Amino acid sequence: MGGTAEVADIFRRHGEAYRKANGAHMGRGERRVMAAIAACRTAALGGHVEQCADCGAIRIAYNSCRNRHCPKCQNLARAEWLEARRADLLPVPYFHVVFTLPAAAAEIAFHNKAVVYDILMRTAAETLRTIAADPKHLGAEIGLVAVLHTWGQTLDHHPHVHCIVPGGGLSPDRTRWIACRPGFFLPVRVLSSLFRRLFLAHLDAAFKAGRLRFSGALAALADPASFAQRLDGLRSIDWVVYAKPPFGSPEQVLAYLSRYTHRVAIANSRLISLEDGRVSFRWRDYRHNARNKIMTLAAEEFIRRFLLHTLPDGFQRIRHYGFLANGNRAGKLALCRQLLAAPAPAPPPPPRDFRERLRRLTGCDLDICPCCGGPMVSLGPLPRSPPQGATAFRCDTS
User: Which of 47, 49, 82, 170 could bridge to 379 as Cys pair (CB 3.0-4.6 Å)?
Assistant: First the structure.
């Protein structure tokens, strides 16, 4: 099945063997992710039957799992989130800043995902807001959107936070907009130093409060002396903070966010084949001029790497800070637009049913026959055991 593999196919073919071999080490979250993705848009979730009024073609549409780790269930959620964010954009340059944990801290994060991922996101935002508020740099209150990613191109564990930040902010007395220098936001070396100090301080506080757990190869870190030694080692190395050049327009900001906000560890489009128990996929080697390469893994290893990125239940991987924080966003954005002499955004369209939203936001029209373009008419719900010989309809929303 070269070129048509999906993550769901890998779970269906090799998931049971993986669970038998590794079940003792799997949490409920990993099990739920595997089950949801394997069942997505299959008879296991039920669906409904439709028929074209013109050509009589029968179509079965199976329900989606809507799991946030599923490669096929992100498109509508991403489009709806982007539509809401369009009203938040200001007519200023936007910057992209990335905060990355070094390997010795990432190990701790993997064993304590909820606690350490939260520290990572809060610390990245605190670092940006603190340096931006300093009169030596910008002297303003900024806003930002932070998105957590935990993977690298080869599905290794690589926790980092992407921050999208308007190039400027509100003055302390809120009477003017303070713009950053053209093409420059904040010094990355200063950001890196503060990020390291704040993160380690919060991590140490979590350890002393008994909020961190260690097992396996990291069991020794439960000893305060060993943990302090690990922190000392992390203080002695440089931490990576990367600031990209500013975006050219607010539309480019949206285009960028559309690729990052609801991304999962690997998209189905990167998979090449699933053959003989091995999975091949494309990846980009950023250490060698972003060269495109192909990696082949045993299916069991691919599943292990994919499940590394299962998030804790309820964890918010997209967060807003500063004048973009949810509690006061509307009022502060209105003030920003007033100071920038920018027009108010058009009101969002009124809420509609699922099919209308899907058509408007993604271009996938479920009311049109894929064979002849005629109107589709619902024949009713579909039980979990579909009619024999029926073929499921796929409206790809990955």
Answer: 49
Confidence band of 396 (pLDDT split at 50, 70, 90):
very low
Q: What's the CA gap between 332 and 337, in Å, rounded?
A: 9
* Conformational region of residue 290, where left means phi above 0, alpha means psi within -120 to 50, and beta covers everything else: left
Task: State the Cα angle at 20 between 16 and 22, rounded to 5°.
Answer: 110
Q: Where are the alpha helices (DSSP H) in the chain?
A: 7-22, 28-39, 75-86, 103-111, 113-133, 188-208, 224-235, 250-260, 299-307, 329-340, 354-362
Rounded average pLDDT over 163-184: 94
DSSP 180-240: PPTT--S-HHHHHHHHHHHHHHHHHHHHHTT-----GGGGGGGSHHHHHHHHHHHHTSPPP
Cβ contacts of 222 within 8 Å, gap of 6 or more: 213, 214
| Length reported for the chain | 398
| Amino acid letter, 199 | F
Taking only the tens place, the pLDDT of each residue in 317-333 is 999 999 999 888 989 99
pLDDT band at residue 385 under the 50/70/90 scheme: low
d(C-alpha 167, C-alpha 246), whole Å: 8
Please give the model's pTM, rounded to 2 decimal places: 0.89
Structural domains of the chain, ranges and CATH numbers in brackets: 7-69+354-382 (no CATH), 88-265+308-340 (3.40.1310)
